[in-house]
Amino acid sequence: MLKTQRMTKIKIIGAQEQLPLTVEIIHKLKLMHLLDHTKTEELDIGNPIGESERISGLLVKSKSLLSSFGVSDIKKENVSEDITEIENKIKKIAEESKESDNLIFKLNDNISKKKIILDQLNILKYLNFDSDILKPYNYLDVFIGTVTKNEGLESALSKITHKLSFASSVYADKCFVGVLAPKKHYNKIFTLLQQHGFNMVEFSDLSEHKGNPKEHIHKLSISIDLLEKDLSHAKEQQKEFAVENAGFLAGAIFYLTKEAEKSQAPLRFAETKYAFIIEGWVSSKEYNLLKKELEKKTNHRVHIEILPISETDKIPIVMKNMFFVKPFEFFMHLYTLPTYKEMDPSFFLFVTFPFFFGLMLGDVGYGFLTLILFSLLWWKMPKARNLLTAMMLCSVLTIFFGFVFGEYMGFESVSEHTGEFLMQYGIPLHQETIHGEVVYSFPRLMNRLHGEVNVLGNTLPTVLIIGVLLGFLHVNLGLFLGFINEVVSHGFKHAFFAKISWYVLELGVALVALSGLGMIPFHIGIGLAVIGIAAIMLFIGEGVQGLVEIPAIFTNILSYLRLGAVGLASVGLAVVVNEKLALPFMERGGVYIVVAILILILGHAVNIALGIIGPFLHSLRLHYVEFFSKFYKGGGIPFVAFGEDKET
Amino acid sequence: MVAEITTGVGYVALAAALAFGLSAIASAIAEKAIGTAAVGALAEKEELFGKGLILTVIPETLVIFGLVVAILILGLVG
């Protein structure tokens, strides 16, 4: 439970002919974590087996096709395991997809060309010109284009010559003009037009649209409409095609990725001309299974041996916990995995994380609401199930502490009227008089908001004291675990000086404090001497760094004050929502009750959101910073079995 | 219950407010710098989320201490 899975380092040696089969078996069993061979003079890395290049090519092609389809929510299909069949189908899909791309491109091109002509014909129509006017004349110049200002243009033109024809019209929010005039006045007219911001229209070849533009416009509009219908039809078909084939492509990508993994695996092995060597890790309890399978399927043609584990080996980690501790492995992945020699702290997270969370949030109502919320999310988000299972346990502890504190959505008590009503249904409330008012309080073991204890003449909230006491226990548990870890990795002597010294230090500080307060009949020097011994032990165990960290242990313990403080802040906010914001409206009655209900919903929603984030982060931080720093180093690498499914 | 508010009580309330408020500002300033760096690191390497989150909430201790001190100060007036 506290140890990670024990591992065995193995070496598989065989002749080249056995390589494809060996890779196939290891890939299928998913039991082995491969070690990459680094090239040396004697042993080169291997070459890809099978049709590595063909597979990679197909993989790239199918990935690019799938991404061009832009289909979301794909259901992966099972594909046949025949590469040629897959290749043919991918080719067919690529061809059809290209065809439909081409069709859409052509239609788009055609439509845009027709639209340009339609636009030009419209200009002629608005200027009341025939399209014949555009053909070259011997004696006349034709100017058709937009101007920025139209005022006075016609009269200015008539001053140049009377022998001209002028037309102007507004089309598509632009002012168009058309001028026909004898060629000899070209320069004058052009200069004048330019002064009016003239911009000539470049007409395309309108020889197919001779005569009155009106008829052509009608015909063109109809043909554009038809083309656009074709286009939307083609796009729809393309989409249908994409949806139809996305499943196959996703399946093909999945299959090809596996094949590529297998065919490129020898790049990670050592190879000679005639033999190969595979090194890797397998969990000790599955070693025999792997060995038996390999020997059976290769007819004992490969040799498997166990290698000794050296100090420098980075052993891959598989955490091994009971099913109810499993979800808490999530927090270890979030931080860092334990190393092989260290203990896996998931179990301690399972015990204390929900406990701290519940202690901080501690409200029956909030507990049930968050439990419902996390259960819903559990159904909706299969990927986050580990975290959500852990959070559901946190909610259960929140409900538990809600009963301990007697808090229900921030209410500690109800009014006399409501109280008497609830008593009829057997709910055990007890009558109290607070500030001269009779109220009925919920049953509780301790009062979080008002409970106080007297410590050395100071009145302090009870929850804060509970927090510090828990902190003391938690940090010391951490030190004890640190002691065990050190014994395993560095021997008893080092462990004694590095970790037991902290206990001695705590004892010294306690002696100094108690004798200083006159509670024990010792001289204060005894306590100081114990602290001195602790400091020397620390120096031997952890060097100067240990001495520097002496104050840290006390701030670490005081840090657990947050167990009470965060809870007080949360219940404080709930009380404000209930009594200061909603109650005044409630008392006015009528429509104001609706307002009060809205305030309650909104206020508690905000408080629950804060109540999830706050206790979650603080509880996590107490573990990562205060608890783990006493014993946990981490830095393990995850065990990745060759052949394991990867998310694509 | 309307406690008689004397100048002394007023000062105590002010002291509590300062203890809490100033420590909150201090936390915010410290978290700002760490948070910025953490987001930067996340952009490079997403696996650092856990560590970044924890580093960011480390100065949160300041405000907790501030709250505790404020409660202690308020305890003076009962």
Tertiary shape of chain B: rod-shaped
The portion of residues assigned to helices of chain B is over 70%
Gross geometry of chain A? extended
Instruction: Considering residues with a beta carbon less than 8 A from a beta carbon on another chain, report the largest interface and each chain's count.
Output: A-B, 26 and 18 residues
What's the gyration radius of chain B in Å?
18 Å
Which structural category do the helix and sheet elements of chain B fall into? mainly alpha
**Radius of gyration of CA atoms of chain A, rounded to a whole number:** 41 Å
How many beta strands in the DSSP annotation of chain B?
A: 0
Notes on the protein architecture:
- The complex is a heterodimer of chains A (about 650) and B (about 80).
- By secondary structure, chain A is α+β, with helices and mostly antiparallel strands.
- Chain A has a domain at about 415-445.
- Helices cover about 60% and strands about 10% of the residues of chain A.
- Chain A has helices spanning about 20-30, 50-70, 85-125, 155-160, 185-195, 215-265, 285-295, 330-335, 345-360, 365-380, 385-405, 415-425, 460-490, 490-515, 525-550, 550-560, 560-590, 590-625, and strands at about 5-15, 30-35, 45, 140-145, 165-170, 175-180, 200, 270, 275-285, 300-305, 415, 430-435, 435-440, 450-455, 460.
- In chain A, strand 5 and strand 6 form a beta hairpin.
- Chain B is mostly helical and about 80 residues long.
- Helices cover about 85% and strands about 0% of the residues of chain B.
- Chain B contains three helices and no strands.
- Chain B has helices spanning about 5-45, 50-55, 60-75.
- The longest helix of chain B is centred in the N-terminal third of the chain and has 38 residues, at about 5-45.
- Chains A and B meet through helix 8, strand 15, helix 16, helix 17 and helix 18 of A and helix 2 and helix 3 of B.
